[in-house]
Design brief:
The protein has helices at 4-20, 36-40, 65-75, 81-84, 102-112, 114-157, and strands spanning 25-27, 46-47, 55-57. By secondary structure, it is mainly alpha-helical.
């Protein structure tokens, strides 16, 4: 699994266009109130960048959800059916395995766009399987970690430590290095 499709389909072409046209300003539609990694990466609506020779301006960076609604009403913005009929919260690349809500998105796509769903599963199916296994592993490790903490707490209430009960000359060999969940990894339902 890798995010190379993002790199080669979006990031590199955008950088190439900036370079080819000797652009001095890159304008991007990121709102801070959207949350997520992209909005958290910036503190202001403007970034000066001497290394690439092109500054970045985010004109809607400070727009709140209320500002967005007001703008849509004032200018009669018509939204995609993805929002108005299908119920998607946001859109990006169809079936992206890095989506936090991929399980819900796949269910919506399967219901409303069955051919698109088949294409996404054909392209990203192995990634979905891998992510499902990874999430199951993370869940298992967290459950084990919780169980060990509860056991340690009960033992400490009884005045005994987990190290005393290991039976290895008092050496404590408990390993609690559970894998932390990747909050950007998609939640995949079995069989997706």
């Amino acid at each position: 699994m890798s995010n190379k499709c993002c790199e080669y389909s979006k990031k590199k072409p955008a950088k190439r266009i900036v370079k080819e046209h000797d652009a001095d300003l890159d304008i991007t539609g990121i709102r801070q109130s959207e949350g997520g990694i992209r909005s958290a990466a910036y503190k202001t609506c403007f970034s000066e960048c001497k290394s690439k020779g092109c500054n970045t301006f985010r004109p809607i960076f400070w727009y709140t959800d209320g500002d967005k609604r007001d703008y849509e009403e004032m200018f009669g913005v018509t939204h995609s059916r993805c929002y108005t009929e299908y119920g998607l919260r946001r859109t990006g690349c169809v079936g992206c395995p890095f989506s936090k809500h991929i399980t819900e998105e796949l269910a919506i796509i399967e219901e409303h766009e069955p051919n698109l769903y088949k294409a996404a599963v054909h392209i990203f199916g192995k990634s979905y399987e891998y992510t499902a296994k990874y999430r199951a592993f993370v869940k298992e490790m967290k459950a084990k970690e919780k169980e060990e903490k509860n056991r340690d707490r009960l033992l400490s209430l009884n005045g005994t430590s987990a190290c005393d009960t290991s039976g290895v000359g008092g050496a404590c060999t408990s390993d609690r290095s559970a894998v932390s969940a990747d909050h950007n990894a998609p939640e995949i339902a079995k069989g997706a």
